[in-house]
């Protein structure tokens, strides 16, 4: 582990921007050998299917009559039409065109007009687990699925916390999302929601497949908005440096977390989030986030305030979504990564995402012509 | 002619799928040296034009003041703007921009600001015939137009039949349409309209530019829907094998027919259909179908039932359109034909469409990026 | 200067079309070393920004608190997001993401979390002038800005004239616009607005960076419409050749003018117009036009008639826009310039636009596939 103990905010420790990287980060595919949520549990009803995508691969999620979810390649071996348009039949899926039928391992178990002894090959199946209200799929080498950990999210299951599930499609490479959340100097973007806040980074740490950074915040002017107080807790007096909350943002590949510890060591906010590429070019991701807020002493106070919190976080998320989509558009137009990063932890993060990502290069093209 | 007398349904006669074809069928252009309908007669009013396309070639159909339809290249020789935006002037078309005028052979007969002795070259004209309420054009080598037959459709002109004209744009290569209609094992797709039907193929025959297959049908469970009884006739008692209707589906390049003969040899249903590629990539076709149903003994019974028949056939056609568009999407994404066909007549049909098609290869590209 | 004194209309002086040009005119980029209007003054409010484009280059126009307009490259040096989404702060722009700040010369003057002694490089600035209600930018080599003239438009500032400002995005290469206005033989396009008019060209003249042509008009049949009379003046008696108004259309690269002089030498109509490419492929232009009409003797007559004049010119402009977009579509489909020009002044104009345009070739692709 690389520990960087000195604070790196302000001018004192800022390093020059990294030299031109060998690989364009925006063309590094996400590594498939991890567990990725592809849907919320409630999206896949009993006896129904749902067609989803991972980095361009079509995958059908099906919940059998017995309630188990399984995941297959979403195209019939026969004429390549999507199996999600078919029919769940007991513990199997029947293609909606000619009725070819596959069990939960992808084996073809029936072609209505063909003898059972001559059945063709089936389709690929994917390891699949259901946890925390999410359906996780392992899109990479299935032999590695058992040894790779699923995320451990104790706050989601702890009654001391209330959890909000949120997310949406965002039209950008997943790397922009990681950088957005980790670089807390972007508070200016949220000036309408947050007022004039300034982040101060306390230091960063890095391991082989993770990087994290600590922050405190100071209000430059104005009053703390109510929505923010709900999420982050009411702010302490200015200058009261020793009693500040500490926010830690961590990318533990391929997931990201943001935790706020109050000055007495209580975990007051615990966010887990992941950005799942949908298309082959990985220019669109579906975000799955679980935001757990510690319940205050007063019963039901958090439940009463919940609609305001939902509104506040949606507004923040909308601004972030908008700006990262602007970044992606700029990259598409420029055909290369022209970013000029001056904040060390972000350069570390970019390096990490490059190292942990897939080994291939996403074949994209410079967008031509339109303004 | 190749006669295959043994029935080829069920496992007994199923052959292994054809080995990898030399040409991707979905990139075989339709052969231009045939008569293709490009519009319904009623779409081209007297003194008006209609812009249509054949495989990317823009063609203007114009009905002169005298009522004759003619077909020209749909762009002015001057500045390439579409002639269909111009004005029919007697037996000629005047371009809507600078008024260059072409007669029905495509010859330029007037440029308002130029002497008649210096008129420029004109535009291409196409052989054109009007029959059965359709406007047929010969888009290929005009020298072959006379010797190539127009379709012969006696049922359409026979008062013993009532004919429905239908069609719509379908976003797929024409070959998917031929395969869809010829493979009657796809009844599962129409399970909501048709109930549980099972096709049994009785045998197939093939000539140089045609292939056909006979079917009978058995109901697996449930009652016959009213719509189906109207189209196919009320079904006979189960097991009454000798009295079954026989359906023959035939591709006689480039057209397709589906005929049902009752057990007494009466032609009860007679469908003629063709799929005309619109764009250069031949990823969209316009379907023109003429469905003739024999009138029953009771006068006006068919006319009364007609709206139900329209509804029924529209529903079936909508399901077919949806599934072939799914097939095209899969092909676009995969960039190649991954079909794994197990039904012999369809492999014969694919071979036929390859052999009868144009000699070039449609230059398409693997669809990049989007999920 | 090349003077061509003989009239070149009708067949007598028509030359053969130019031989195949070395460069496809539709792929000649407009020359950047001129002043181009990128917005109307009223579009850029005090303390606000406006994002515009010149030939694919994003440019932000900002009006500072003091009212001065300046123009910068519209992307932050940091993460390439558009500066027009930022905030005007006094005489500078602050990026909306992390707050990087640029002055009116493009220099980075603040990064909130970085010491002032370590500020990164800024962004490009563009010479910018505000005249006639337009914001002009010099997108080319800034060193040439001073020596290149801004347009001189006395009628716009003369109270004897009333000026209409108009324009819109048109989806075509700027060259189609120049050809459309200069070739008055296209009156047939406006037959619904103008009746049967015939232009007669009196002669053309050419210099190094300009070409112009004179016309008179004769009505072939019908009555003069009211809208036209307003714009061009009431027509004289037929055959009264000596008293005809003379229209002169001139391309003085990169601008275009159309002036009508009455028989007594009064300038009755004075149009200045320019077509600014927006996208890198220069397939879309934004048109800025200033149409000045001389006020008649009766006070307020022109003001009363103004709505009719607006309606009339909008109709004409809509027809022109439609036809040039058809021309562009044809070019995109054909991938080359198939125009077959027979009118000498247009061949001169095309030659001029080729010679005065940028030296590079716009990299475009033949549109594939769609009908």
Automatic annotation (TrEMBL), chains A, B, C:
GO function term, MF aspect, one: dioxygenase activity
Residue ranges of the region described as Disordered: 1-20
InterPro entries listed in its UniProt record: Cholesterol_7-desaturase (IPR050584), Rieske_2Fe-2S (IPR017941), Rieske_2Fe-2S_sf (IPR036922), VanA_C_cat (IPR044043)
UniProt key word Manganese: no
Keyword set, alphabetical order: 2Fe-2S, Dioxygenase, Iron, Iron-sulfur, Metal-binding, Oxidoreductase
Rieske domain span: 35-137
Identification of the protein by name: Aromatic ring-hydroxylating dioxygenase subunit alpha
Source organism: Trinickia dinghuensis
